[in-house]
Amino acid sequence: MDLIIFDNDGTLSDSERMNCTVTSDILVSYGFEKYTPDYTMKHLAGMSMPIVKEMLEEEYQTTLPDNFIQEFIDRVTEQIPLQLQPVTGAVEAVKKLSASFKICVASNGEPENVEACIETIGLMPIFGRDKVYTKSLVSRGKPSPELFLYAANRMNAVPERTFVIEDTVSGVRAGVAAGMHVLGITAVSHHPQETREQLLSLGAKRVFVSWSEITDYIKSACG
């Protein structure tokens, strides 16, 4: 194996709850009252905001405000320095794995937010800004495989020799569709057993509860 592609939210950064809470606050203010933080977490986690906007507009036959996505970006940007923490063990894992593999980030998040997250948890010096890829670079974010294939191409790696590490349904679907070896992580999942079963059913090779297990598995699998 040559390349490891890391998701960000819920994989490197413990940011999924923060993102979903912000999304919930905005949607409830627009009148989508069923989108509580828990409902948003269950149904929208891992989706890019353009896809969320498109889905809601189609479901409710309405048009969300033009500044919907920018409002999300601005609110999350405010929260990142106040409450963001890395997923336990993520920083150490990236440092260890970067010694043996090419590494990059591929996230459905908004570029400003993803870069702020990677910077805040201290991993920007390891990845470098040129190896942080977001859905803004492709026509469709996850669950489309486009972003992962784009990242592999930029990193001069082939899909069949690439690991993807993901925590969401949309991410696993994207990695499997890209023909990559997908590993799941449930370190910050609020329903770890349910999430584990979902990710395995969608084609994840293995699902782990901690970063130490992932690093041990990769080192073992790659000899």
Describe this structure in words.
With 223 residues, the chain is an alpha/beta fold. It has two domains: 3-15 and 85-221, Rossmann fold (3-Layer(aba) Sandwich), CATH 3.40.50.1000; 16-83. The chain has eleven helices and six strands. It has helices spanning 16-29, 37-44, 49-60, 68-83, 90-97, 111-120, 124-127, 146-154, 169-177, 192-201, 211-221, and strands at residues 3-6, 102-107, 132-134, 162-166, 181-185, 206-208. Strands 3-2-1-4-5-6 form a six-stranded parallel β-sheet, with helices on both faces. Helix 9 (169-177) links the parallel strand 4 and strand 5. Helix 1 (16-29) crosses helix 2 (37-44), helix 4 (68-83) packs parallel to helix 6 and helix 5 (90-97) packs parallel to helix 11 (211-221).
State the gist of this model.
This protein is an alpha/beta fold and 223 residues long. It has 11 helices and 6 strands.
Q: What is the CA-CA span between the terminal residues?
A: 10 Å
CATH topology-level name of the largest domain: Rossmann fold
Oligomer: single chain
The class by helix and strand makeup works out as: alpha/beta
Coarse morphology = globular
CATH hierarchy, class of the largest domain: Alpha Beta
Task: Give the strand order, joined by hyphens, for the main sheet.
Answer: 3-2-1-4-5-6
Please state the second-level CATH architecture of the largest domain: 3-Layer(aba) Sandwich
